[in-house]
Amino acid sequence: MTHAATFNIRNNCPYTVWAAAVPGGGRRLNRGETWQINVATGTTQARIWARTNCQFDGSGRGKCQTGDCQGLLECKAYGSPPNTLAEYALGQFNNLDFIDMSNIDGFNVPMEFSSNSPQCNRVIKCTADIVGQCPGPLRVPGG
Protein backbone atom coordinates (compact mmCIF):
# COMPACT_ATOMS: atom_id res chain seq x y z
CA MET A 1 0.00 0.00 0.00
CA THR A 2 1.31 3.42 -0.94
CA HIS A 3 0.76 6.01 1.75
CA ALA A 4 -0.53 9.35 0.51
CA ALA A 5 -0.70 11.04 3.89
CA THR A 6 0.37 10.71 7.47
CA PHE A 7 -1.90 12.09 10.18
CA ASN A 8 -0.51 12.93 13.61
CA ILE A 9 -3.36 12.94 16.10
CA ARG A 10 -2.42 14.73 19.32
CA ASN A 11 -4.46 15.16 22.48
CA ASN A 12 -4.12 18.76 23.66
CA CYS A 13 -7.09 18.44 26.01
CA PRO A 14 -6.45 18.47 29.78
CA TYR A 15 -8.14 15.05 29.98
CA THR A 16 -7.87 11.65 28.30
CA VAL A 17 -9.57 11.13 24.93
CA TRP A 18 -9.87 7.98 22.89
CA ALA A 19 -8.94 9.03 19.37
CA ALA A 20 -10.77 7.33 16.52
CA ALA A 21 -10.28 7.20 12.77
CA VAL A 22 -11.94 5.49 9.83
CA PRO A 23 -9.75 4.24 8.32
CA GLY A 24 -7.28 3.81 11.16
CA GLY A 25 -8.96 2.31 14.22
CA GLY A 26 -8.63 3.87 17.64
CA ARG A 27 -6.33 4.51 20.57
CA ARG A 28 -6.36 5.97 24.08
CA LEU A 29 -4.47 9.27 24.24
CA ASN A 30 -3.58 10.86 27.53
CA ARG A 31 -2.87 14.60 27.55
CA GLY A 32 0.06 15.37 25.21
CA GLU A 33 0.20 11.90 23.61
CA THR A 34 0.25 11.43 19.83
CA TRP A 35 -1.00 8.67 17.54
CA GLN A 36 0.14 8.44 13.92
CA ILE A 37 -1.88 6.88 11.11
CA ASN A 38 -0.84 6.41 7.47
CA VAL A 39 -3.56 6.60 4.85
CA ALA A 40 -3.55 5.44 1.22
CA THR A 41 -4.12 7.70 -1.76
CA GLY A 42 -7.68 7.50 -3.04
CA THR A 43 -9.14 7.37 0.48
CA THR A 44 -12.55 9.07 0.60
CA GLN A 45 -15.19 9.79 3.25
CA ALA A 46 -12.56 9.46 5.99
CA ARG A 47 -13.02 10.81 9.51
CA ILE A 48 -10.99 11.46 12.65
CA TRP A 49 -12.71 12.24 15.95
CA ALA A 50 -12.27 12.11 19.71
CA ARG A 51 -14.29 9.91 22.03
CA THR A 52 -14.75 10.82 25.68
CA ASN A 53 -15.48 9.05 28.96
CA CYS A 54 -14.67 5.59 27.61
CA GLN A 55 -14.27 2.28 29.41
CA PHE A 56 -12.78 -0.72 27.55
CA ASP A 57 -11.92 -4.23 28.69
CA GLY A 58 -8.75 -6.14 27.77
CA SER A 59 -10.29 -7.31 24.49
CA GLY A 60 -11.02 -3.73 23.34
CA ARG A 61 -14.77 -3.86 23.94
CA GLY A 62 -16.59 -1.21 25.91
CA LYS A 63 -18.48 2.06 25.62
CA CYS A 64 -17.85 5.79 25.23
CA GLN A 65 -20.13 8.64 26.29
CA THR A 66 -19.41 10.52 23.04
CA GLY A 67 -18.23 9.28 19.64
CA ASP A 68 -18.72 5.60 20.46
CA CYS A 69 -18.12 3.28 17.49
CA GLN A 70 -20.18 0.18 18.16
CA GLY A 71 -18.42 -0.45 21.48
CA LEU A 72 -14.99 -1.05 19.92
CA LEU A 73 -11.64 0.53 20.81
CA GLU A 74 -10.47 -0.10 17.22
CA CYS A 75 -13.21 1.67 15.24
CA LYS A 76 -14.39 0.12 12.01
CA ALA A 77 -17.38 2.43 11.56
CA TYR A 78 -18.15 6.09 12.24
CA GLY A 79 -18.80 7.22 15.80
CA SER A 80 -22.19 8.05 17.26
CA PRO A 81 -23.08 11.69 18.01
CA PRO A 82 -22.05 13.92 19.54
CA ASN A 83 -18.56 14.13 18.08
CA THR A 84 -16.52 16.90 16.45
CA LEU A 85 -15.24 15.63 13.10
CA ALA A 86 -12.14 16.13 11.00
CA GLU A 87 -12.94 14.84 7.51
CA TYR A 88 -10.72 14.25 4.49
CA ALA A 89 -10.47 12.74 1.01
CA LEU A 90 -7.12 12.10 -0.70
CA GLY A 91 -6.18 12.18 -4.38
CA GLN A 92 -9.59 13.30 -5.63
CA PHE A 93 -10.55 15.80 -8.37
CA ASN A 94 -7.37 16.90 -10.22
CA ASN A 95 -5.46 14.68 -7.75
CA LEU A 96 -6.19 17.15 -4.93
CA ASP A 97 -6.65 16.39 -1.24
CA PHE A 98 -9.57 17.88 0.69
CA ILE A 99 -9.86 18.51 4.43
CA ASP A 100 -12.61 20.03 6.56
CA MET A 101 -14.06 20.09 10.05
CA SER A 102 -17.68 19.46 10.81
CA ASN A 103 -20.16 19.65 13.65
CA ILE A 104 -22.82 17.79 11.66
CA ASP A 105 -22.71 15.08 14.35
CA GLY A 106 -22.60 17.58 17.21
CA PHE A 107 -19.67 18.85 19.28
CA ASN A 108 -17.77 17.09 22.05
CA VAL A 109 -14.20 18.49 22.11
CA PRO A 110 -12.35 21.47 20.62
CA MET A 111 -10.32 20.49 17.57
CA GLU A 112 -7.68 21.77 15.16
CA PHE A 113 -7.06 20.18 11.76
CA SER A 114 -4.12 21.36 9.69
CA SER A 115 -1.89 20.39 6.81
CA ASN A 116 1.86 20.74 6.65
CA SER A 117 2.05 19.96 2.93
CA PRO A 118 4.07 22.49 0.92
CA GLN A 119 1.04 22.94 -1.35
CA CYS A 120 -1.39 23.51 1.52
CA ASN A 121 -0.71 25.15 4.85
CA ARG A 122 -4.28 25.67 6.05
CA VAL A 123 -5.26 25.48 9.71
CA ILE A 124 -8.90 24.84 10.59
CA LYS A 125 -9.91 25.35 14.23
CA CYS A 126 -13.02 24.89 16.27
CA THR A 127 -11.86 25.88 19.74
CA ALA A 128 -14.87 27.81 21.04
CA ASP A 129 -16.75 26.63 24.11
CA ILE A 130 -19.70 25.41 22.06
CA VAL A 131 -21.04 23.18 24.85
CA GLY A 132 -20.98 26.10 27.32
CA GLN A 133 -22.91 28.28 24.88
CA CYS A 134 -25.37 25.60 23.79
CA PRO A 135 -29.00 26.11 24.85
CA GLY A 136 -30.09 23.59 27.49
CA PRO A 137 -32.70 21.81 25.35
CA LEU A 138 -30.01 20.97 22.74
CA ARG A 139 -27.42 19.58 25.20
CA VAL A 140 -26.73 15.91 25.66
CA PRO A 141 -24.30 14.24 28.08
CA GLY A 142 -20.77 15.08 26.95
CA GLY A 143 -21.77 17.41 24.11
Describe the structure.
The structure is a single chain. By secondary structure, the protein is mainly beta. Helices cover 3% and strands 42% of the residues. The chain is built from one helix and ten strands; from the N terminus they run E-E-E-E-E-E-E-E-E-E-H. The strands form three sheets. Strands 2, 3, 5, 6, 7 and 8 form a six-stranded antiparallel sheet that branches. A hairpin with a 5-residue loop joins strand 5 (46-56) and strand 6. The protein is globular, with a radius of gyration of 15 Å. The chain starts with a strand and ends in a 10-residue tail after the last helix. The model has no long low-confidence stretch (mean pLDDT 89).
- The number of helices is 1
Shape: globular
Rounded radius of gyration (Å): 15 Å
Strand content: 35-45%
Q: Segments where pLDDT lies below 50 for 5+ residues?
A: none
Pfam family, one: Thaumatin
Keywords: Disulfide bond
Disulfide bonds: 54-64, 69-75
InterPro entries: Osmotin/thaumatin-like_sf, Thaumatin, Thaumatin_CS
List the helices and strands and how they pair.
Elements: E1 3-10, E2 17-22, E3 25-29, E4 34-40, E5 46-56, E6 62-66, E7 85-89, E8 98-102, E9 111-114, E10 123-126, H1 130-133
Antiparallel strand pairs: 1-4, 2-3, 2-5, 5-6, 5-7, 7-8, 9-10
Disulfide bonds: 54-64, 69-75
InterPro entries: Osmotin/thaumatin-like_sf, Thaumatin, Thaumatin_CS
Pfam family, one: Thaumatin
Task: List its salient traits.
single chain, 143 residues, mainly beta, six-stranded antiparallel beta sheet, two-stranded antiparallel sheet, 1 helix, 10 strands, 3% helix, Osmotin/thaumatin-like_sf, Thaumatin_CS, disulfide bond, Thaumatin-like protein, Thaumatin
